[in-house]
Write a structure and sequence with these properties.
The chain is α/β, with parallel strands linked by helices. Helix content is about 35%, strand content about 25%. Bound molecules: iron/sulfur cluster.
Length: about 325
């Protein structure tokens, strides 16, 4: 029997009202996330990628109830997070944490790093003040910072060091899942890889599951076991990281990948330029939402929404013509 996933997201939908007119009535909705389903297994990393505004960060925040879902369910170890009361939700925050793109915004600038890192222990009533101080020093060392950092303030650190502090806070209560929301996007490339390596080390030690949200497929490649690609609020393809880079199947994934430079000059990849802008999520296109930018689009694509077909345990694709496209590309 296969192991129960740590997290199961089922038909998650999040619409934000658009208000207008004199009385600020609801005049429409931003379809930020529509009918999104996926699973995360214990100890694995799922990369969630797509262009800016595709809804990936909204998914991350809805998992922690930082946004309330419009519809759908999120099961963590079999329990639906969307139905939890406040008390249960607070207890769950031990098990699920989030790291944001800009740790500076989430670290209280007026508190020392020691106070910031001790906060989760205080909230969850873990340890005595002395024990908390000891745990804080251990956490700092675990993320590659000196224990003396505990007496300093967030502004005294570089962007990469602040992200390490954010990671230390996220692992303080030994969670089972961390949502990394564009966690390395603002860092220099060399610092990015240091932070990614730190996350990978922690994952191995703690059997942590990660949801790694990024707009850059190249970044996600190095950390993910599986990848889910989002376009305009929907998942269009899921696949193992290895397979998605070797043989992407959905035309949108192919276009995203073709934009990544290949370091080996002997390998050529045909560049596919994505034409046009991402359509408005207030009035998403009919049928396949990608049809306004897809070079393979047909009348069927414009009229009928493709359902995401599960090909095997890791692979799913939402495209009417993916098999035909693959056959043509292989010929
Ligand atoms: Fe392109 Fe049609 Fe496939 Fe959508 S369903 S990705 S428009 S070929």
């Amino acid at each position: 029997m296969s192991e129960q996933p740590l997290l199961s997201v089922v038909n998650l939908t999040k619409h934000f009202p658009v208000r207008g007119g004199l009385f600020l009535r609801t005049v429409g909705h931003v379809h930020a996330v529509d009918d999104v389903s996926f699973e995360v297994r214990r100890g694995e990393t799922l990369g969630l990628v797509g262009e800016s505004g595709c809804g990936k960060s909204t998914v991350g925040k809805a998992l922690l109830r930082l946004y309330e879902a419009t519809a759908g369910a999120v099961f963590f170890e079999g329990e639906d997070i969307t139905q939890m009361n406040r008390k249960r939700l607070r207890a769950l925050r031990k098990d699920i944490q989030i790291i944001f793109q800009d740790p500076f915004e989430s670290l209280n600038a007026r508190h020392t790093v020691g106070k910031i890192l001790a906060e989760p222990f205080v909230i969850h009533k873990v340890g005595t003040p002395n024990e908390r101080q000891h745990r804080v020093e251990q956490l700092l060392e675990r993320v590659g910072l000196d224990a003396s950092a505990s007496n300093r303030f967030p502004h005294e650190f570089s962007g990469g060091q602040r992200q390490r502090i954010g990671i230390a806070r996220a692992i303080a209560l030994e969670p089972k899942l961390i949502v990394c929301d564009e966690a390395v996007s603002a860092l220099d490339v060399s610092v990015q890889s240091q932070v990614i390596n730190l996350l990978l080390d922690l994952q191995r030690e703690m059997n942590l599951a990660l949801i790694f949200i990024a707009h850059d497929l190249a970044v996600v490649k190095h950390i993910s076991d599986r990848i889910a690609v989002m376009y305009l609020g929907e998942i269009v393809e899921t696949e193992t990281a290895q397979e998605i880079y070797a043989a992407p199947k959905h035309p949108y994934t192919q276009a995203l990948l073709s934009a990544i430079p290949i370091p080996d000059p002997t390998i050529r990849r045909q560049r596919q330029i994505l034409s046009g802008d991402v359509p408005s999520p207030i009035t998403p296109p009919s049928g396949c939402r990608f049809h306004t930018r897809c070079s393979h689009a047909t009348a069927t694509c414009r009229n009928r929404k493709p359902t995401r077909e599960q090909i095997d345990a890791n692979t799913s694709i939402a495209c009417h013509h993916w098999e035909q496209i693959q056959a043509e590309q292989a010929a």
